[in-house]
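Tip: read the tokens left to right.
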């Protein structure tokens, strides 16, 4: 009987990881094959890339293939693939299905085409691409959202790494108010936290001002090693410690907290509001408009268009892998009672997960890995904001004085909003909600841009049109219901969001088919503003050199 029970227990353990393993298989295999399909759709060639054709030693700087890919990963993987999935797992093991499917069909596609369009169009930033393909009206609206997003990313990614370093690593006070009394914490107790904030801001300033290969290109390999070591450590710890065998299955009984009001308490909704709340919550772990801005930065450093799939598409798949790891780890600590899913904040859960699977020393390394994620997104977000504002207002960025002046105009408001959000006990929640909404809204714009491009070239526009419409429904229904928005009930929010989504889809198709007609009639030349196509010349030269050798 004991042997039989042991056999049954072993069988259950094997079965209990099915959803997670299947999700990983969908992510990795789907990413490999669908990434190849995306590459065939775009059709890269051997033309000279902007890194060489427009080299300026500041922003257009050729860098090694592995370095470009690593920087792209660190740029896009902020706290979204960690804090987002930790909160998203409160919706149950459905996260192990939605994250990989969303990454393969949505997020990675978004990142690949954003990066490749910039690469093909002289390293143009997203606002410039938006103006070129969507017109001045859309460009003006997008510019507001993307600049707001970059600003909020900068604030959030000072706030979160600063708090994790101060609280989880050094044990300092991170709150401006006493939780028990509601009274302000003495300023003397906040000095260590403020010093950490100041150091992060100073690094951001330096990274924003200096040429990309002088700071970011040199320090990111170290950051990347910490990031990957922490993610692999958690992944191994899940299996080695047996924690992975306690996670729930999509088809089995779900954790009690999913059905006991925790979702409602945490997000102001019920499980029935999976759309939009899950997708807004996980954010960067599935689809992120922020990623398109970062892909455009790296597009200025890529050596060949054939590097695009690995640099843009596969790095998003790797981010999805990180999201899956932290989601699984969060479910384990919630299931085992190490953290209260209704009470324990996501940043605190990071520390609990890290120490649970890796011990004190390994836990600190893992926490530092998460800190790295945030910092390496914050610096490039503010760098992107500087470049976007410079392009919009035609401010020369080759002169150091003008770079410094524009950077200070950005950093002073960032510091002010950071302090303001810390003074309000609910400040971060409000900040995160605005960040999430702006983030996904920018993705909606990017999907529209890519769909118009594909439709104009008679390519399969449906592959970005459907994700774009879906996220239009997500962001509109969220804003219509949210307290920071229109505060409508869910029924009304869904109806109005549906109408807005239909309107969005109609406008995108109209713009795409109009561009196709203008191209085919000879009214516009789609290659006029692209990076010059000297691919035939380069291939001939390469063949000649090969023959001579």
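Filled-in amino acids:
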């Amino acid at each position: 009987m004991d042997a039989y029970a042991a056999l049954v227990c072993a069988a259950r353990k094997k079965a209990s990881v099915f959803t997670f393993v299947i999700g990983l298989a969908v992510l990795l295999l789907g990413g490999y094959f669908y990434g190849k399909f995306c590459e065939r759709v775009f059709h890269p060639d051997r033309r000279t890339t902007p890194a060489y054709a427009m080299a300026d030693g500041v922003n257009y700087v050729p860098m090694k293939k592995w370095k470009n890919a690593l920087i792209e990963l660190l740029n896009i993987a902020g706290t979204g693939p960690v804090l987002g999935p930790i909160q998203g797992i409160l919706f149950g093991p459905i996260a192990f299905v939605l994250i990989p499917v969303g990454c393969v069909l949505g997020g990675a596609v978004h990142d690949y085409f954003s990066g490749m369009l910039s690469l093909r169009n002289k390293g143009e930033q997203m606002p410039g691409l938006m103006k070129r393909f969507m017109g001045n009206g859309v460009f003006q609206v997008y510019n507001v959202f993307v600049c707001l997003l970059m600003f909020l990313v900068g604030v959030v990614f000072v706030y979160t790494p600063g708090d994790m370093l101060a609280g989880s690593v050094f044990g300092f006070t991170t709150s401006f108010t006493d939780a028990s009394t509601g009274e302000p914490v003495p300023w003397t107790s906040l000095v260590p936290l403020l010093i950490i904030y100041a150091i992060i801001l100073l690094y951001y300033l330096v990274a924003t001002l200096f040429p990309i290969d002088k700071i970011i290109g040199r320090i990111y390999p170290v950051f990347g090693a910490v990031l990957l070591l922490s993610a692999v450590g958690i992944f191994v710890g899940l299996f080695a410690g047996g924690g992975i065998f306690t996670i729930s299955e999509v088809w089995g009984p779900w954790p009690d907290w999913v059905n006991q009001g925790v979702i409602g308490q945490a997000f102001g909704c019920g499980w029935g509001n999976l759309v939009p709340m899950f997708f807004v919550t996980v954010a960067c772990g599935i689809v992120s408009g922020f990623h398109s801005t970062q892909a455009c930065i790296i597009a200025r450093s890529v050596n060949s268009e054939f590097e695009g799939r690995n640099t843009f598409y596969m790095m998003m798949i790797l981010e999805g892998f990180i999201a899956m790891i932290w989601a699984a780890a969060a479910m384990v600590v919630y299931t085992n009672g190490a953290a209260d899913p209704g009470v324990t904040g996501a940043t605190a859960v990071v520390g609990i997960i890290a120490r649970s699977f890796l011990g004190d020393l390994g836990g600190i390394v893992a926490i530092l890995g998460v800190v790295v994620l945030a910092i390496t997104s914050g610096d490039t977000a503010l760098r992107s904001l500087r470049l976007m504002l410079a392009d919009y207002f035609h401010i020369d960025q080759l002169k150091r004085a003008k770079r410094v002046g524009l950077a200070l105009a950005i950093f002073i408001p960032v510091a002010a909003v950071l302090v303001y959000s810390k003074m309000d006990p609910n400040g971060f929640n409000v900040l995160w909600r605005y960040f999430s909404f702006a983030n996904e809204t920018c993705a909606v714009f990017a999907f529209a841009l890519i769909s118009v491009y594909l439709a104009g070239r008679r390519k399969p526009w449906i592959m970005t049109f459907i994700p774009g419409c879906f996220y239009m429904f997500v962001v509109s229904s969220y804003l219509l219901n949210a307290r920071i928005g229109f505060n409508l009930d869910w029924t009304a929010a869904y109806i109005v969001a549906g109408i807005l989504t239909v309107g969005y889809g109609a406008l995108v198709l109209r713009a795409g088919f109009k561009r196709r007609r203008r191209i085919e009639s000879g009214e516009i030349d789609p290659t006029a503003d692209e990076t010059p196509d000297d691919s035939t010349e380069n291939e001939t030269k390469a063949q000649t050199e090969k023959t001579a050798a």
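Residues 1-15 have pLDDT under 50 and may be disordered. The two ends are 73 Å apart (CA to CA).
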